[in-house]
Design goal:
single chain, about 500 residues, Growth Hormone, Chain: A, 2 domains, 2 strands
């Protein structure tokens, strides 16, 4: 294979700096992944400070995902007409604005809206950079898209380690952690916003908007890949979103486990060329469906220590190639779908996780966490805590007392611990500042329950891996019967 060119002429004859554009795209992807990591890392802090239940946290995390999908659907088809640089200018503004909204938030709705703006900026990055990478490297799309997507897990590692270091230094401010997004944002702004960009591969081949839509929406293979993308994204991003909070509730350094998962993913994606050559893209997807299923099921049963790290390792190996290889296969097999095809893939994946998978995992976690709470012990504690806080002049303690009495009243009516009122009362007590006797006891009750509920939510995602095994198995066998995986050139399609 010939080395990648440093410069490449556009259709207009103007040379573009391939290396600068690729590096800038990677830094932009770091900004999106730092946002992913830091939002994940601050979930427990948001839950405590704003007294949010798991479902609300799921919606905040979900907005950070389905907002991506909305952005992809709106802007990906415009990469040809507006230009990829224009989309990246909008993403730059969105990253800065969304971060500021969340930092200044006073409650759930501002947090939700800020996460949505950040997500739309993330979607703009992918709407511009995926077709940019495909255009810069038309003969090596799957491998270069994998190497580009090294920097999503790579950015998670950077953001996760930075968050962990701040905690270790006694700087626990979630606002400061979220502000980490600004650093790579400024960097990609410097690299890309003034650079010269090529036309997309579709424009260079003379593919019009109508033809692009027809290729993306009227090709059976494309629909198969869209359905598969909904499931691969759910398997990868749904659990990844919850890992820090779930493991921290169980007493582990969840952010470090997330860093380990994503560091391994980055390393493996960087070496994607060897793996793709040995197995073919559809073979990679088939193997990934098996390994990810084993890892996710194992992760749902482990409780702390080395078994959790081992399960997380298998999970990382399984999911690492899903997203970029799916994009590469679509770009190589349905090339005339262009930026729209890549945008639809990203939109379907993120929308499914944001609107379905993440909130559903939150609801499952709440339900099973409630079942794990010892009823008599929890009721006795809520009664004593409510009495201890009665008459307090502190606003947070008044709110915690009210939450405890609400849960107790519902318990008397229902004859069992109400969900999510019981867990919310415990969270309110943890954040009330009522003293170690109350806070530590509430945490001791809630932590194991939240950990258990979160792990059960992982288990509910696992069957998707079986369905993916059937889909990718059929595609792999079809390729074998046809003599092997074949790349379709855009001029041939």
């Amino acid at each position: 294979m010939s080395p990648d060119p440093v410069t490449r002429p556009s259709v207009s004859g103007t040379e573009v700096d391939t290396r600068r554009l690729f590096v800038g795209s990677c830094v932009a992807l770091v900004a999106t992944s730092v946002a992913f990591a830091t939002v994940g890392a601050i979930m427990l802090a948001l839950k405590a400070e704003f007294v949010l239940d798991n479902a609300q946290v799921g919606w905040i995390g979900g907005a950070a995902l389905w907002g991506f999908a909305v952005s992809q659907l709106v802007f990906a088809p415009l990469a040809d007409t507006l230009g990829m640089r224009a989309l990246l200018r909008l993403s730059f503004l969105g990253h800065l604005a969304g971060t500021m909204i969340m930092v200044l938030a006073g409650g759930f709705w501002a947090l939700f809206f800020g996460a949505l703006v950040i997500a739309m900026a993330n979607g703009l990055v992918e709407a511009a950079c995926n077709p940019l990478v495909a255009t810069l490297f038309p003969d090596n799309k799957t491998v270069k898209l994998n190497q580009f997507h090294v920097w999503f897990p790579g950015g998670v590692v950077i953001g996760g380690l930075a968050s962990w270091a701040l905690d270790g230094a006694g700087i626990g401010s979630w606002q400061l952690k979220l502000g980490l997004i600004v650093v790579p944002t400024i960097m990609y702004g410097v690299l890309l916003l003034g650079a010269r960009f090529p036309e997309t591969e579709g424009v260079q081949a003379g593919v019009g908007m109508g033809e692009m839509f027809k290729s993306a929406l009227a090709t059976p293979f494309m629909w198969i890949m869209l359905i598969a993308m909904a499931m691969t994204a759910s398997v990868e991003l749904g659990p990844n979103r919850w890992v820090p909070a779930v493991l921290e509730a169980g007493g582990m350094a969840g952010i470090l486990v997330l860093v380990w998962i994503n560091g391994l993913m980055a390393l493996l994606r960087y070496r994607a060329g060897t793996v793709v050559k040995q197995l073919s893209p559809t073979g990679v997807l088939l193997a990934s469906s098996v390994i990810s299923g084993v890892g996710l099921l194992w992760l749902s049963y482990t409780e702390g220590g080395l078994p959790t790290v081992a399960a997380a390792t298998v999970f990382a190996v399984g999911v690492c190639y899903f997203w970029p290889t799916m994009l590469g296969v679509v770009s190589e097999r349905v090339p005339r779908s262009g930026a729209l095809g890549l945008g639809l893939m990203g939109a379907v994946g993120m929308a499914t996780v944001g609107l379905v998978t993440s909130p559903a995992m939150g609801r499952i976690a709440d339900e099973y966490a409630n079942d794990r709470l010892p009823a008599a012990e929890t009721v006795a504690f809520l009664e004593s805590a409510a009495e201890a806080l009665e008459g307090s002049g502190d606003v947070d303690q008044q709110s915690a007392e009210a939450a405890a009495r609400t849960a107790l009243a519902a318990y008397q009516e229902q004859g069992g611990l109400p969900s999510p009122e019981t867990a919310n009362a415990l969270r309110a007590l943890i954040s009330s500042g009522a003293g170690p006797a109350v806070v530590d006891r509430a945490q001791a009750l809630l932590g194991p329950a939240d950990n258990y509920g979160g792990r059960i939510s992982f288990r509910y995602v696992t069957p998707l891996c079986g369905i993916l095994f059937l889909i990718f198995g059929a595609l792999y066998l079809r390729d074998r019967r046809a003599g092997g995986y074949r790349v379709t050139r855009i001029a041939e399609a």
